[in-house]
Amino acid sequence: MVIRIIGTGSSLPQQVVTNDGLAEAVDTSDEWIFSRTGIRERHLVKEETTASMSVEAAERALINAGIGAEEVDLIIVATITGDYLTPSTACEVQAGLGARRAVAFDINAACSGFLFALHTAYAYLETGVYRTALVLGAETLSKIMDWEDRSTCVLFGDGAGAAVVRAFNGETRIRDDGSQWLEEKGKGGLLAFEQGSDGARGKVLSCKGRENNNLLVRNPFTPSYVKMDGQEVYKFAVSTVPASIQRVLEKAGMEAGDMKYFVLHQANIRIIQSVAKRLKADEGKFPVSLDHCGNVSAASVPILLDEINKKGMLERGDKIVMAGFGGGLTWASAVLEW
Ligand code: COA
Description:
Helices cover about 30% and strands about 25% of the residues. By secondary structure, it is of the alpha+beta class. A five-stranded mixed β-sheet has the order 1-7-6-4-5, sandwiched between helices. Strand 14 (about 320-325) and strand 15 (about 330-335) form a beta hairpin. The longest helix is centred in the last third of the chain and has 23 residues, at about 230-250. Coenzyme A (COA) binds near residues 37, 111, 151 and 154. Coenzyme A (COA) binds near residues 231 and 234.
């Protein structure tokens, strides 16, 4: 069984807010934000919602894969910012696409969410339960930011990314343009996963849900926002991510030097540079989208994957690592042969 990503798509809100634009409303500066994070601007929603961006990203991924919505068996959306507690964003995507055959549900693993969702889809596909999955990371983080808290609100952005994942069992797939891909058994695709969680340290990056409120206890509804101990999260990221990547490379029987790209969660350019250094890998192998997207949590990895795919930077046989880390705390890595 070969399990491949056969299409990618993404959707960003129309409105772009630069660091200078942000500094008009928040006590900050382009110099502070860019020098500490590498972020120049981010997209923020006005009309868009988590579901509308997800549907658009999914439609683009299906077009890129050359398949129709009716072929999708499974939709998993990784998000912490769905528009509703229920229905899930995945169910909204199903409705938006008209993917009537699909089973749909959301996953919450914060910034590792896309990798967790991908691993979950892989498990369904690998065991033959389903054949074709749509995996998304989608966030409207701007609605859970405290816009008075300059240490967090400058870091995050909104957007959605999607990947179509399909299991092949030695059959030929014919694309819309008539070309054929012969899928050989046991070659390429998703090769290895590694993931973990550390709930004991979870409160260093948190956003509270609703308080208890019933006949026995009254708590008037008050909105809650993201709170973060930036330096603790930074230390977690620079130690955990390279170790996770080393482990997933070992599982795949490969080395950092075999990888064409390292598609990392886009939180901070200094984290990316530190991971590159620890892996002794060329920084040029770490594509970046945080300069124009900021940190889009679960959407960062699929948006970046779509960007490099659209630019034609991925060729059949290229090996890449994808890695996510963040709230929970959680982390996950995968090795993929394109
Ligand atoms: N603009 C201007 N000043 C700011 C600011 C902003 N947006 N945010 C905070 N500051 C100020 C603080 O008030 C503090 O001032 P003080 O020293 O006078 O008290 C100072 O800047 C803090 O600066 P510093 O300690 O140098 O910050 P830092 O180097 O730790 O950088 C982060 C802060 C958040 C960029 C960094 O900790 C980080 O990237 N952490 C990881 C966060 C992350 O990636 N989270 C998501 C993971 S999924």
